[in-house]
Amino acid sequence: MSGNGKKRAPLVADKRYAAKPAAKKKVAPKKKTAKPAARRKASPKKAAPRGFFGWLLTPFRWLFRLTWAFSWRVGLVSALIVGGFSFYFAAQMPAMSDLIDQRTRGSVTMTDLQGDVFAWRGDQFGGMVTTETVSPHLHNAVVATEDKRFYRHFGLSPRGIASAVRINLRAGRGPLSGNGGSTITQQTAKLLCLGVPFDANKWDSERAYEADCRQGSLWRKAREAVFALGMEIAYSKQEILTIYLNRAYLGAGSRGFEAAAQRYFGISAAEVNPAQAAMLAGLLTAPSANAPTRNLQRAQDRASIVIGLMEDQGYVTAAQARDARLNPATLSEAARASSGGFFADWVMSSGPEFFTRDTTEDVIIRTTLDQRIQTAAEEALIQVFENDVREGSEAQAAIVVMSADGAVRAMVGGRNISATGAFNRATQALRQTGSAFKPFIYAAALDLGMSPYDMIDDAPTCWERRGSPQWCPENYDREFLGPVTMVDALATSRNIPAIVVSEEVGRGLVSEVASGFGVQGDLAAGPALALGVSESTLLDMTGAFAGILNGGSQVTPYGLTDLRLLGDDTPLMDATGVGIGERVIREEAARQLTWMMSNVVEVGTGRRARIDGWQIAGKTGTTQGSRDAWFIGFTGDYVTGVWMGYDDNSRLTGVTGGGLPATIWRETMLRVLSGLQPTPLPMTVPPRPEGTGLLQSQGGQAPAQDILNLLDSIFTGASN
C-alpha cells in the first residue's frame, strides 16, 4: 500500500551482500568470436568413431589418407618424368618422310622371258603411300582391326591394356604374355625400334635386329609407351598411321601395304576392294603364317573376321560385308603361279652378290625363264611320281631345260616344286654321271677322225692300275657281244667298248673334251673315267649336251638376261659374252655324234623318250650300284636333263636312266613341244660301210632283235 500515493522504488535488501563493483562496459563485442573457434576445435570429437565398427575402420581410413597423399605426389612426379622424356623423344623425332623406308637391304624382282614378274626376293617396298592415297577400305580395315580408338586416344589405350591383361590371364598366360593391347602408335614405335637405328656391328642381321626390337620385357614396354607419347606430340595421327602403313611387314618379303598389294594382287594399295583390304589387314597379326602365298584358305578365313570387325564398326554395310565374304580375295596370276622358285634361287646365287644376296638397292632382273616350259616340267614330275613311283618313296628328281645357247628355260630342283631357299638338286648336288659321260668319249674319237662305224671289241678285258689289282669291268648285263660298231656301242651303252675307245684316244684328251664342254670337277685319272665315276651337277651336264647340239662349242648355262635398278632404263649388266663360247670339237664331229645319240633314242637304251614326229638325241646313265639315274636328251630347239636318286645316296630299285628318268623327260617334252612344228636335228648321217649296220655286228653275232629284247629286260622298272 502506498497510502500517500507516491511512487517508491522496489524494496531491495541492500545490506545482505557485500557491495559489488560496478560492471565495466564491454567495448569490443568481437571478442565473442572466440566461442565459435572453440567449437571448431571440438568438431573432430563430433566425427570421432563411435562403437566397435567405428574403431575398427579407423586404421583403414588413416591408411587410405596416407596412401592418397603419397600416391598423388608420386603420380605427379612420375607424370613430370614421363612428360619430360616424352617431350625429349618428340624433340628427337626426324621428319615423318625420313621414317617411311629405312630398310637395311633392298629387293630383287625377277621377270621372265616375256617380261612378267614371277619371283621376288629381299625386302620389297612398293613406294610410299599415305592415309589419303590408300584405298579408304584399307585405311578402315587397319583401324578396325588394330586400334578402333586410334583417333581418340593419346598414344596409349588403358582400356585396351586392361582388356589384353584380362585375356592373357584367362588364357593362363602372364599378364604381359600374348595379347599386348598395343595401339597403332605403340606398334609404330616398335617398328621404329624406339628410334634405335640398325647397327651391323651389333646385330648379325636385320632379322636379329627386329627380334630385339620386339622383345616384351617390362622395361621395354615402359620405354615403348614413353616413345609412343613422344610420337603423339611430334606427329599428327595421319602421319603416325602413314608411317605404320609403310613400315609394317606383311609376309613374303613385303614391307608396307603398297608392296603387299602388288605382291599378292598385282595392284596398287589405292585400288584394293573391301575383301582385299581385309586380307591385307589380317596379315598384321601373323604375316608369315597368314600370307596367302603360303596358305590362301587361312588368309581368307582371317579376312572374314576382319570384315566382321569393319561391319560392326560401321565401315562397311551389311551388303558389302556379305559380298566380301562370298567373293574373298584371291592371288594374282603371278603370285598364284609360285613357280620357278629353284630357278630364282639359282639366279640369286649366281648373280653379283652386291646386286642380289646383299643388295641395298631395289633391283629388277630380267631372266631367261619361260613359265610355260617351267609349268611343263613341274607337271611332268608330279605326274610321274604320282603314277609310277611307289607311295611313300623318298626318291628325288631334278629337271633342267635350256636352249642350245645355254639360256635356261626351266629348272626343278626337287619334288617340292614351290620351295624357296631349299636344296637345289639341279645345281648343288654333285653326283656320279655314269654312262651319261660316254658321249664325250666318242666326241674325242670322232674329233680325231674315227668313224661311227669303226669296230670295237666288246670282250672281257682287264686293265692295270698302279698300286692296285687288275681292274676287270663288266657290262651292265654281264654279257659280251664281241665286235660292235661305235654307234651300236653307244646306243646300247656298252661299258667295255667305251673304255677301249677312251684308252685308245687317251684319257687326257677325253678329260679335256669333257671339261671343254663344261663338265666341272675333278675327273677320274684311271680307266674308270670312261664309266662316269666323276661327279657333276645336272645343270653342267645339260649344258655340256647343249654344246653338242650347237655344233661342238662350249656352252655356259645362264639365267640372267639383264640387271637394272628400279626406275632406271639402262641395264647395269646384261648377258653379252655368256652362252656359247670356244669351240671344243669340229662341227662335223658334233653332227656325227648327234646322229649316234639319236640312235640311243630310236633303237637303244633311251627308247622310252621317243616322241612321234620328232628327231631326238640323248643318252641314258646309271651309276655303279644304281645310286643315280640320268637321261639327257635334246631336240633341235631344247636340251633337257633329268636326274633321279636319293639324297642319302641310297640304291634305287628297278630304276635305270632308260626307265623313269626317260619317262620324266618324255612327259616334260610332250608338254614343251605341244603346238610346235618339229625341228630337225643338226646331224650328219655318215655313209654306211658295206657289211655293217645298226645293232648288227660282223659275222652275224648279236642280231638286232636279240639286243632289243635284252634292252627291254634291262631298262624297265619303277622306283621304290
What is this structure, in a nutshell?
The chain is α+β, with helices and mostly antiparallel strands. It contains 25 helices and 18 strands. The radius of gyration is 44 Å and the shape is elongated.
Low-confidence stretches: 1-46, 696-707, 713-720
What is the count of helical runs?
Answer: 25
Overall pLDDT level: 84
Percent strand: 5-15%
Spatial separation of the terminal alpha carbons: 156 Å
Principal-axis shape: elongated
Going by helix content, strand content and strand pairing, the class is alpha+beta
Please give the order of strands in the largest beta sheet: 2-1-3-13-14
The radius of gyration is 44 Å
Number of E-state strands: 18
Helix content: 40-55%
User: Main sheet, how many strands, which sense, barrel?
Assistant: 5 strands, mixed
Write the layout of secondary structure elements.
Layout: H1 34-41, H2 43-47, H3 52-92, E1 107-111, E2 117-122, H4 136-146, H5 158-170, H6 184-191, H7 206-213, H8 218-234, H9 237-247, H10 257-265, H11 274-282, H12 287-290, H13 296-312, H14 318-326, H15 333-337, H16 341-350, E3 362-367, H17 371-388, E4 396-403, E5 408-412, E6 431-432, H18 438-447, E7 455-458, E8 463-465, E9 468-471, E10 482-485, H19 486-491, H20 495-505, H21 507-517, E11 535-536, H22 538-549, E12 553-555, E13 560-565, E14 573-574, E15 580-583, H23 587-602, E16 617-622, E17 628-634, E18 638-645, H24 660-672, H25 704-714
Parallel strand pairs: 1-3
Antiparallel strand pairs: 1-2, 3-13, 4-5, 4-18, 6-11, 7-10, 8-9, 12-15, 13-14, 16-17, 17-18
